[in-house]
Amino acid sequence: MHEVRALAPATVSNVVCGFDCLGFALDEPVDETVVRQIANPEVRIIHHDDFGLPTEPDKNVVGISVLAMIRDADLDFGFEVEITKGIKPGSGIGSSAASSCGAVVAANRLLGDRYSKLELVEFVMQGEMLASGARHADNVAPCIFGGMTLVRSTEPIDIVTLAHPSIFATVIHPQIEIKTADARAVLPQSVPLIDATRQWANLGAFVAAASQGDLRLLGRSMEDVVVEPVRKGLIPKFDEVKEASLAVGALGGGISGSGPAMFMLCPDAETASKVREAMRLVYEPTGIDFKIYCSPIAGSGARVI
Q1: Which positions ≥6 away from 242 have C-beta within 8 Å?
Q2: Residue 91 to residues 46, 79, 188, 190: CA-CA distances in angstroms?
Q3: Is 142 within 8 Å of 129 (Cβ atoms)?
Q4: Spatial distance between the Cα atoms of 184 and 284, rounded to a whole number of angstroms
């Protein structure tokens, strides 16, 4: 085997009260990655898009992730990585993580599945440092493991896969770009203890509600008093989208990743469709192009096809 093809899903991270630790995978959109073995221990990158992403491996999240694997395995050969992106960069739904996760999963298959999922997350986090300036795995973990995940620690890496009810997410992606590094720059450097306590309580309640299938508690726990107040100003019509979605039955939601995407969790497919329509009605008059996705929380992460 000298060539492997993989699909890697979009992901929602932060999940309102779970900044930098909570995330889940979507069924769509996805990135497609083809990885081929080449003679020299290097990474070559081919893009099939017009996003202007760099092909130099040390300036590309995919290149850094795969190079980390090559060095760790002490390989005398390398990989060519061909990427077809279905997830626009700067979308807030894990674009960089998806490309990198697909690449390392495919490369790992070429190595006979030498590395565990946890070890693959370690490689991809090295690439995420380039994208955001921070070593975080809240997109990477659900993209590799699938489902809903909690990153308990990154030093050392410790990922908890979470039980969750069969719920849907509706995600609107305004076609504007917010770079992760820029979104992190507006974050407060310190948080009042009263706000921190409220945030911890919401996160604990969210995890409990997900494991118990308590949708009413899940909705009440989706409150962010730390990040959303300072980031929502970067996203046109954020409050209007949230209000309209809740009015038609959404459980709750907020900013996906660093934005501009917004997500709402819904109890069923019918409500998710109603939320899609509510979001559309808010955004169409703005003149801003947008895409909307409705998806169950995906059971699988990046996978070889």
Answers
A1: 253, 254, 262, 264
A2: 21, 27, 22, 27
A3: no
A4: 28
Dist. CA 206–CA 212, nearest whole Å: 10
Q: Does CATH place domain 168-296 in 3.30.70.890? A: yes
The distance from CA 170 to its chain's CA centroid, rounded to whole angstroms, is 14
Reported as a single tens digit per residue, the pLDDT across 114-129 is 999 999 999 999 988 8
162 - beta bridge partners?
148
State the CATH architecture for 3-162+300-304.
2-Layer Sandwich (3.30)
Q: Is residue 32 predicted with pLDDT exceeding 80?
A: yes
Please check whether residue 129 is in contact with residue 67, taking contact to mean a CB–CB distance below 8 angstroms: no
Q: Which residues are catalytic?
A: 128, 180
Using CA atoms, how far residue 135 sits from 16, 88, 122, 296, in Å, is 19, 21, 10, 28
User: What are the residue boundaries of the structural domains of the chain, listed by start?
Assistant: 3-162+300-304, 168-296
Stated length of the chain: 305
Closest CA to 206 of 251, 237, 250: 251
- For residue range 172-230, what is the model confidence (pLDDT) as tens digits? 999 988 877 788 889 999 999 999 999 999 999 999 999 999 999 999 999 999 999 99
